[in-house]
Amino acid sequence: MTKTKILVVEDEFITATDIENRLKGMGYDVPAVVDNGEEAIRKAGELHPSLVLMDIGLSGKMTGIEAAKQIREKFDIPVIILTGHADESTFWSALGSEPFGYIIKPFEAREMKIGIEMALHKHQETHKAIRNNTRIPGGIWGKLALIFIIFCVLFFIAILVNPSRLSQPGDIGPPVPLSNTINPTSTPPAAPTKETPYEKNIKIVREIAQDYHSTHTYLGVQTGQSSDMYVCIDMAKDVWNMIKTRGINAVIEVGNVNKNISTINDVNHAWVLAEVGPEQWLAVETTGGFVVFEDENPRYYAGMQFDTPADMKEYSCGKDYCWSDTCADGQCLGCDSGYALGTDLQCHPECKSTHCVCENGQCLGCDSGYVLGTDNKCHPPCIDSTHYCLSGYVCGTDNKCHPA
Q: 3-state SS string over the chain?
């Protein structure tokens, strides 16, 4: 019996490996794993998979939504969207690619299995209906049945995109302040009758920042923790992709909001600039969940700018434990002592803990029942299946982290 072929499109190496292993464990064939939209389209035409699992945020200039739309139109291959964002704006943007499923990360294996089988069945039934020239049943009862089916589908989608289904992290460190205080002189004048495009874009950008911050709190060495859980560049990448998905131009910027930068050594932070109007930019503080107008802190507008996350690779090469002068095409070719070069050409702490799955010295994942931490060690989970307690904290019976 021929196995069902599934093409995986995911730019996070550890996540992609985990998905590939899960699919193979379920009996599916995974002929390829790619990390960008252009390669996904090429592989879809070359391999003709039965289904594509597509992450929204990808490396390169093409989003997963754009790639999914082209794969559906060119090859008639069903696509399931994968995303770590449960906000409605991301969902409605993804809906434009007409996906056969929408799965929010993190997800369980059973949830993935059900989503795949439903998508495959839906695709088969669609083709069967076309072959049989199936028509909508006539009469009032047929129309009522069709309305009921549509209502059920919309109700199911509403449940999937409800942000409340995501677990909230517990109190495991000093909170990052959430500020929405905007200088009155910076706020655009309210339109008496209709919202202007400028005001509309500011509203969209502010909502994205707040929604993202509500589920992605920055916890790192700068807040008194022993290690980073989320780092600012990762958060900037996520928010940049969400803003671009809404049709607003954006760039990632690195700099220092506390002082003017004169050398690379002065850089200590990353955020996003959104073009809310023609040549009108608004800084998005990704780790704080608020926006900053230029007259409030001009240093948010005076850093180093990059059009895409991929463009930052060349800049970041030579740092993060890379040996100096060992870069090619923005990728690190060697690592300092105590760090291993992974198959993703990035430096990672050497795999040093039990329950760790290693390759070339890089920790790729953990045994069942353990969570891979930012220190590349495996930890018992706490709060939910994707979180763990940092050093100095223990997991209580309420499944929250408390000071030891």
A: CCCCEEEEECCCHHHHHHHHHHHHHCCCECCCEECEHHHHHHHHHHHCCCEEEEECCCECCCCHHHHHHHHHHHHCCCEEEEECCCCHHHHHHHHCCCCCEEEECCCCHHHHHHHHHHHHHHHHHHHHHHHCCCCCCCHHHHHHHHHHHHHHHHHHHHHHCCHHHCCCCCCCCCCCCCCCCCCCCCCCCCCCCCCCHHHHHHHHHHHHHHHHHHHCCCCCHHHCCCCCCCCHHHHHHHHHHHHHHCCCCEEEEEECCCCCCCCHHHCCEEEEEEEEECCEEEEEECCCCEEECCCCCHHHHCCEEECCHHHHHHHHECECCECCCCEECCEECCECCCEEECCCCCEEEECCCCCEEEECCEEEEECCCCEECCCCCEECCECECCCCCCCCEEECCCCCEEEC
